[in-house]
Write a structure and sequence with these properties.
The structure holds 2 protein chains of 2 kinds.
Chain A (H helix, E strand, L loop, with lengths): L4 H22 L7 H18 L14 E4 L5 H11 L39 H14 L6 E6 L6 H12 L5 E7 L2 E2 L2 E2 H4 L5 H7 L3 E6 L3 H10 L8 E6 L22 H10 L2
Parallel strand pairs in A: 1-2, 2-3, 3-7, 6-7
Antiparallel strand pairs in A: 4-5
Helix pairs in contact in A: 1-2, 1-3, 2-3, 2-8, 4-5
Chain B lengths: L5 H15 L3 E5 L3 H4 L1 H7 L4 E3 L4 H12 L4 E7 H7 L1 H9 L6 E5 L17 H6 L5 E3 L4 H13 L4 E4 L21 E4 L4 E5 L3 H11 L6 E5 L2 E3 L3 H8 L4 E9 L4 H8 L7 E6 L10 H7 L4 H12 L1
Helix pairs in contact in B: 1-3, 1-8, 4-6, 9-13
Classes of the chains: A alpha/beta, B alpha/beta.
Chain lengths: 274, 308
């Protein structure tokens, strides 16, 4: 499928903006999830600014696609996307994690417009997404539910309970996206709990598997559009990504899973993302 | 229609309510024949979701269904519905105040044969500790019918605890269930017994047996949370001592909840319940209750002691 150069460049620019906003909202001297935000930034950009039907003026519009951040610890990335889309002012991103703020450390369905459900206790988002997918199907609303998971998160058993149930229910309106950045909080995924090989695992649970480069915007759009094809199966997109992508010193560095920036590295990150 | 079993009352009422309310959906984890979720499945197969033996997934799926406007009821034995799925309930349903109803079936010692693994002695304590959660423990089948109706009418997370076994009703059929309202079952002025679930039945028997010795007030506390502070204080006011009775550990359940309310009253309180212990297998319900001191006789003794 061909996408206009203008569209791709516009989305790439937006993704850079989201990464920048993530850095700004983390600030200096306080730990924040730079790594996992930056690995998922291109995917989240493609969802909010290309793929999903949603309305910042009417977040509860019945006929909307839904996005769940199962890896809820990168809430700052979702906040950056929601702000950029117009759900709330971009300036408010700096208030993330402040006492009394509507932007909590993990997504909060009551406090924050655009959040579909509370997530962050890992392994639960896919089940919640399946419930939404079943609800939409029951109501004959032809919209999708997208759930973003981390690859470290796949060690949680509930992910596979949900995978089995979605396969059994043939929930074709459910799309899981695995942000496969190969690192987790304490080290390499293969050294903590190796979840590979992913493709045969998901296939054996009754899913259609699409693999893509999670930093190539055209490849992401192609994968998301391919997921629209009705096959009677849920779809998982395995997006190969780099943790910390876009900030050179954070790329593939475990310490930036939830790391603090110094004045110097903060400025460098903003420069690299300008 | 009158029932003598809480599970049957529950399943029948869901079927009845489901007729008028298309948003009600029911989820089971391969125990529908026991939770009576199967009654709903037979009546409305498209609105019943069999989730297999996977309570954690079932509970989070219910959260997702609630977010599309459904009123999901998740069913399992109380040990699993509220225990195994605790984190799912806490993280998404309770923090988000989602409209999910959780049914802890075969609660307390009522699954007498299966033993400690299947007997929930701490579910009320766990559920009660979660902010935003409403916790109900109806006394009998009659009250279950009305409690289920109240669950559908309220918006937000709610846990209901049900007994597995048949026993006679002590509450009035068709009496509207007001969440947070304890019911005065028997007037009395010496000792007040706050009881919940099947223990209301035993408390009534104990009060009757003691009627020539003293005047025992019996209160059915079928809403464990939110606890109605004002009503409990009023009902305890003129009695010199308090007895609580529950088919649950004395740690964190009704006794604890009543003590919290009465903490400034300087009134003696004694608990009838499981003394920080798990249950065990028995050939029948009566035996397992007796082994743990949940009998009319033990209640009579306890009330007498408090009246000395």
């Amino acid at each position: 499928m061909g996408y206009s150069r203008e569209l791709i460049e516009d989305l790439e620019k937006k993704a850079r903006k989201l990464r920048r906003d993530v850095i700004i909202s983390i600030g200096v001297g306080v730990a924040g999830h730079v790594g996992g935000s930056n690995s998922a930034a291109d995917i989240v950009t493609a969802l909010y600014f290309y793929k999903m039907r949603h309305d910042p003026k009417n977040p509860h519009m019945e006929d909307r696609d839904r996005f769940l951040l199962s890896k809820g610890h990168v809430a700052i990335l979702q906040y950056a996307a929601l702000a950029e889309a117009g759900y709330f002012p971009v300036e408010d991103l700096k208030k993330t994690k402040e006492i009394g703020s509507y932007l909590q450390g993990h997504p909060d369905v009551i406090k924050t417009p655009g959040i579909e459900a509370g997530t962050g206790s890992l392994g639960q988002g896919l089940s919640i997404g399946l419930g939404m997918a079943l609800g939409l199907t029951a109501d004959e609303i032809d919209r999708k539910v997208y759930v973003l998971l981390g690859d470290g998160e796949l060690a949680e058993g509930q992910v596979w309970e949900a995978a089995m149930a979605a396969g059994a229910y043939k929930a074709e309106n459910l799309v899981a996206i695995v942000d496969k950045n190969n690192l987790q909080a304490q080290g390499k995924v293969v050294e903590r709990m190796d979840s590979n090989p992913l493709i045969p695992k998901w296939e054996s649970f009754g899913w259609r598997v699409i693999e893509c480069d999670g930093h190539n915007m055209e490849a992401i759009l192609t994968a998301l559009d391919a997921a629209d094809e009705k096959t009677g199966k849920p779809t998982v997109i395995i997006a190969n990504t780099v943790k910390g992508k876009g900030v050179s010193f954070a790329e593939n560095v475990v310490g930036y899973h939830n790391g603090a920036l110094t004045e110097e590295t903060y400025q460098q990150a903003l420069e690299e993302l300008s | 229609m009158s029932y003598t079993n809480q599970r049957v009352a529950y399943g029948s009422t869901l079927v009845e309510l489901g007729r008028e309310n298309p948003d009600i959906v029911v989820l089971d984890a391969d125990l529908g024949g026991s939770t009576m979720g199967k009654m709903f499945e037979q009546a409305y197969p498209k609105r019943h979701y069999e989730m297999g033996i996977a309570e954690a997934n079932m509970t989070s799926v219910a959260a997702g269904l609630a977010q599309t406007g459904k009123i999901p009821f998740t069913n399992s034995f109380a040990v699993f519905a509220g225990g195994r799925a605790y984190d799912q309930i806490r993280q998404t349903i309770a923090i988000g105040k989602l409209n999910v109803k959780i049914c802890g079936s075969s609660a307390g010692l009522s699954d007498f044969g299966d033993g400690a693994t299947h007997q929930s002695v701490e579910d009320m304590a766990i559920m009660r500790a979660i902010p935003n959660m409403t916790v109900l423990c109806p006394a009998d089948a009659n009250e279950t019918v009305e409690a289920v109706k109240a669950m559908v009418e309220m918006d937000g997370p709610c846990y209901i605890r049900l007994n597995r076994n048949d026993y006679p009703n002590v509450t009035e059929e068709g009496r509207k269930f007001q969440i947070g309202e304890p019911t005065l079952m028997r007037e009395g002025k010496d000792i007040v017994v706050f009881a919940t679930g099947y223990m209301v039945n035993l408390a009534m028997q104990a009060a009757e047996e003691l009627k020539d010795e003293m005047s025992v007030k019996v209160v059915n506390v079928s809403t464990i949370k939110p606890m109605n502070t004002e009503a409990i204080l009023r009902l305890a006011k003129d009695c010199k001592a308090v007895v609580t009775a529950e088919e649950h550990s004395i740690v964190g359940g009704l006794g604890s909840a009543i003590s919290e309310v009465l903490r400034k009253e300087c009134k003696p309180i004694e608990y009838v319940g499981l003394n920080d212990t798990f249950g065990c297998s028995a050939h029948n319900y009566k035996d397992v209750l007796a082994y743990h001191g949940l009998t009319k006789e033990h209640m009579v003794e306890t009330i007498r002691e408090m009246n000395r």
